[in-house]
Amino acid sequence: MRDSWRDSTPEPPDPRSATSIAELVERLRLAKVYYGDPSVRDIARMVNQTRAARSQRSAKTPPTTPSTIGYLFDVRRVRLDVNLMVDVLQAIGVPSTAVRQWVQAWRVVTDTVKPDRRVAASRELPAAPVVLLGRDAELSTMLSSGKSVVVHGMPGVGKTALALRVAHEVARQQGEQAVRLYADVGSIDDGDIFAGPEEIGGELLQALGVPVPSSADAIWQALSAHLQGRDCVVVLDNIGTVDQIAPIVALPGTRVIATSRRRLQSTARILAMPLRPLATSESVALLLRIAERPGPAADHADLVRICQSCGNLPLALTTAAAFIRRHPDWTIADHADRLAELTGIPGLHAAFQSSYQSLSVPARRLLRLLSLHPGHHIAEPAVTALCGDTQTPRVVDELVDVSLLDRAPGDRYAIHDLVQAFGRDRALDEERPASRRAALHRLVTSYADLVHAAATSEPDRPLAGTSDTVGAWWQAERSNLAAAIALASHLGMAAETLAIARDCWIRQDMTGDFAAGLAFQEYAIHASATLSDPIAEAEARYRRGMLHWRSGAIEAGVRDLEAALATLDGTGTDLLRARIHNGLGVILMSDLRYAEAGEHYTVALEVYRKCDDLPGQANILGNLGVCRMEQGDLDDAATYMVRALTIFERTGNRRGLGRSTGNLGEIHLDGGRPAQAVPLLETAVRLHHDHGNIYDASYCLASLGVARAGCGDLGQAAADLEQADALSTGLSSDHLRSHLQRRSADVALARGDRQAAEAAYRQSLATAHRARAGWTVLCCEKALAELDRPSPPSPSL
């Protein structure tokens, strides 16, 4: 291909014939091909070598990236860095005399660009899109309003396509005699230097073939006179403010359909219509329609991957579909893999760059730094941490105004993943590595501080530095915390990694988020090895072991806790060893290994008494009570539980108080005393709810339902079970699920539905076997054995 180009074009392209930047860039593209068509990566490498050799790059100037080189060859750009152009020309082998011609050509085309951007107007509307999916609601609202409309949204979201569909429909309704006008205002590329209404009006007059008067008033009088008695639809692309179009909207019989990347507000005569990315299902449908592919069901996952890579943006989807259509021999998986490997989506870079160039210098830097955030929803403390500056609200507003950020609930900001990818690319180009590292270090430190504050506060309390309560903050930041600990580990911030893992694990345990908890502790074990800290490693292995147990992996849990004891090997505190022994007792007890569990409880209790640790003693007493209950000694179990309850009340330990109160209620329930169990279980549910302990609240609610059924209140029993099931939705715990299924069977039996009870017991038994929940297995087997016995015969009359 390259040799044939050289053969057919013996002379290199001449830049001196260019009359615009676009034409000059087109010739630059031809020059790249003529001189061997090197890749943008190779050009970037050669440019960086050249600059380094000339010692022109200071410590504050980052290296040129392949994406920057790629954008140099984009014909849609409106500015051209002459220094970069010269370096690229020299890198690809253009002779020095020819390079001077390129510089002269650059001077010519840039001298012809007016300070105020020129509006290009025409008497014809561009064609309406052939396919427009997922916009039915917006289309209906815009057509039925009867007003002029401004469609606003982020680059690539499909504003112009929707505007043209509406404009063509309005024109059809107006009839063939109606006037149709289109103008690309193009204000985005000139920052805040917007084309004035008079300039737009003058261009519309030129498109109509009417001489343009010199005064503003005369322009509007001329337009009004020309349109008198005629309907008119005007499409204005890329406006900056509603003031630009207000005089045009006021013209008789005229409807304006405008687009803007800026977030504009409705007025009495103008409807502002926000546009969001498509839903995934709509994106898949659009992709298949444009690509002209049938889309078998087997391809669905790969089609979703393509849509996710395109950010569900119609512009990117259209580009991807065109590529698919040109490569019919590729599979959908091939196309999905290609897009996953691209650093930028074709067709979107120029649109994002246009918005980026319109920003102030502080706003550009803010976008670059915010894009380093590992998540897509960024709270205000994270904004402050990344920027190292508390005076950011005005700059954040600027990003929101041009649709590069969206406001989200809870004083958060949402950033589209493709905008974020663009911002990261700009950060690699324009932020020093040390600056990026410093921002990420501040972010991780901020998260570590917030996690610690949340872990040491009650869920209903406000979390300092945020607008959230502690419970709401945990829920909103769940995915960000996973990304933050991964980032901390990647940056080698071992202390912060340990802190985040330590402070998150109780919350993860209470909410049943075991998979995330296990991942956090993996990071913590790695960090402790980095620090050569055996105590930190033992603590992390203990936490991971307990999470393994909660996930039903008993052997893995035992191995972790035994490894934790071995890791200490004479170091650490007696209290840490006691906590690990208590954990081993809990795990072994759940596997019905009561004697071994008792040995570990005894060791732990001796240490807690020696250290006068009352909460530790109460934990052991409560666990011994559960152990006695499962062995059938309910009186002894109640005695242990009351002792634990007394200590927890005295020390104000709300979590321990909730668990011991609930366990005492379970003891009364299993002892056939439902009336005594009800108030205890009600109290336990309330305590767990207040503490944000979803797992134990669900557990106690299910038992409360059985206790109410035992008291004859079957309606409330069913409501309790339903609430327990709803509360546990999303908790990945077969242990809890088996308990809820067993209690559902108990209630079914209480209302006399033996068939439903048997089905629920068998379901619970299967789940309990999977979870290694030994006590639930025994209870279900016993209940099923009772159900298998024939009912006593009715007495004969």
Q: Could you explain how this protein is built, in words?
A:
This protein is mainly alpha-helical. Helix content is 64%, strand content 5%. It has 38 helices and nine strands. It has a six-stranded mixed sheet, sandwiched between helices. The chain has a three-stranded antiparallel sheet with strand order 7-9-8. Helix 11 (246-249) links the parallel strand 4 (232-237) and strand 5 (254-260). Helix 33 (674-690) runs antiparallel to helix 34 (694-710) and helix 34 (694-710) packs parallel to helix 36. The relative contact order is 0.04.
What is the topological layout?
Layout: H1 2-8, H2 21-34, H3 40-53, H4 66-72, H5 82-92, H6 96-111, E1 120-122, H7 136-145, E2 148-152, H8 159-174, E3 179-184, H9 197-208, H10 216-227, E4 232-237, H11 246-249, E5 254-260, E6 270-274, H12 280-291, H13 300-309, H14 314-326, H15 332-341, H16 349-357, H17 361-370, E7 377-379, H18 380-387, H19 393-401, E8 406-408, E9 412-414, H20 417-430, H21 433-455, H22 470-476, H23 478-490, H24 494-510, H25 514-531, H26 534-550, H27 554-568, H28 574-590, H29 594-610, H30 614-630, H31 634-651, H32 654-670, H33 674-690, H34 694-710, H35 714-727, H36 734-750, H37 754-771, H38 774-788
Parallel strand pairs: 2-5, 2-6, 3-4, 4-5
Antiparallel strand pairs: 1-3, 7-9, 8-9
